[in-house]
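User: Structure please.
Assistant: Input sequence and predicted structure:
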Amino acid sequence: MMSWRRLLSPRRLGHTGAEPVTPTRNPFQKDWDRVVFCSAFRRLQDKTQVHSLPESDYVRNRLTHSLEVSSVGRSLGAQVGEVVAQRAELREDLGGITAAEFGHIVAAACIGHDIGNPPFGHFGEATVQHWFRSGAGAVYLEGLSAAQRADLLAFEGNAQGFRVLTRLQNWRDAGGLRLTCATLGTFMKYPHGSLAADPAHPKFGFFQAEADAFAEVADAAGLLALGGGRHARHPLTYLVEAADDICYSVVDVEDGFKLGRIGFDDAESRLRRLLPMLPPRYGEIEDKPWRIAYLRAKAIGGLIDQAVEVFLRHEQEILAGSFSGDLLSRTPSAPHLAEIAGFTRERIFETRDRFQTEVMGGEILVSLLEAFCAAHAAFERAGGNEAELAPRDRALLRLMPRQPDPAAARYDWLLDVTDHVSGMTDSYALKQFQRLRGLQ
C-alpha cells in the first residue's frame, strides 16, 4: 500500500533534503513555474495539438492545451485533496500538506504532460518509430542492447518528456529542472521502461538513459513495485490523465465548430449530453460561439466532479496499485465521451487536409532524421576526426545544440538526434527541411 506522505514528497530530484512546504509559495508551485519558464514549454506554442499548422488562430495548440489541462488538473487535485486531508487518520501522515498542495502537484505535472511530443503530434511520434523499425534508421540499431533498441523502436513522447524535465532543460545541473519527486511521480503516466511495456500497447515512461532518475523518483515517492520492471502509478497520475482526457474530448468539439467542420446543432447536442440539465442562463446567450463556449465550460465542470467521485470511491485500490483503467471510463458520461470521440475522429481527424499535412510532416521528419544520423555515423566512422567528414556533414553537426562527443556511444548520439528533432516546432522543422533541400 502506498503512503500519501511519501507520495507527496517535496524532495527535489538530485537533492538529498526536502524544501519546507509553506503556504506562500510551496515547492510544487515552484515546479509549475520552472516548467512554464523553460524553453521546451514555450516551443509548445507551435506544436500540433489536433490541427497541424492550423488556418485559424482560435484553435488550440500544445501550449494552450497544456495550460487548460493544468487548470482542470488543479481543480481535480484540490477537490481530491480536500477529502483526503480531512480524514482524521491521515492528518499527521500528510506532513502539513493541504488540499491546495494536492492541486499544485497535479497542475505542475499537467503543465508538462506534453512537453516531450515531437513536431506534428502523434503522427510525428509514429514516424520516428517507423523510421527506426522499417526505414533507414534500422541500420543504426546494430550493437545496441535490447532495452536501447526498444527505446528507439517504440520512441515515446512520454519518455521524451521525462528526459526533457530531468536532463535536457538546465542540462548542466544534474536532475534537469530539479522538480519535486511528487510532481515527477505524478507526471509519470507509464512507470516502466520500454522492455516492460505491454506489447499490445507499447507505451513507456522513461528511456534507459533516465532509468536511474526514475529509480530515484520511485524510491522517494514510494511508488509500489509490481515486478517485471513495472511500478504502480502515482495515484495523482490518474487525475492528470483525467484532466487531459476531459480537455481534449470537450474542446475538440469547440475547435471543430470554430473551424467550420462541425455544425452548431451537432456541437450543441453533444455537449448538452454531458450535462444532467441545461443551465438556466443558457437561454440568455444569443451568440452561437458563446453558447458553445458556455456549454464547454459547464461540461468540463461536470466531468471534474464525476472524476473526483470515482477517484475517492476507489482510493484504496489506487493506493494498493490494483486499480485498472482510467477514471472517466467509470463515470456516467463515459458513453457520451466515447460517442464524441468517434464523431470528432470522423469530422476532424480523418480529413483530406489532415492527411495532406501528415504526408508533409512525414517527409520532413524522415529527411531530418536521415541527415543528422548520417552525419553522426560519419563522425563515428571517422573516429571523431572532423577533418575527414564531408563539408555537409560538418555543417549538420554544427547545427546540433551541442557538439558531438567523439567518445559518445551510438545510443547516446541517437538520443541526441531524436532530442534535436523532437524538440523542434512544426514551423522550425519545416524551415530546416526546406534549407536541407536547398529551397530557402
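The two ends are 59 Å apart (CA to CA).
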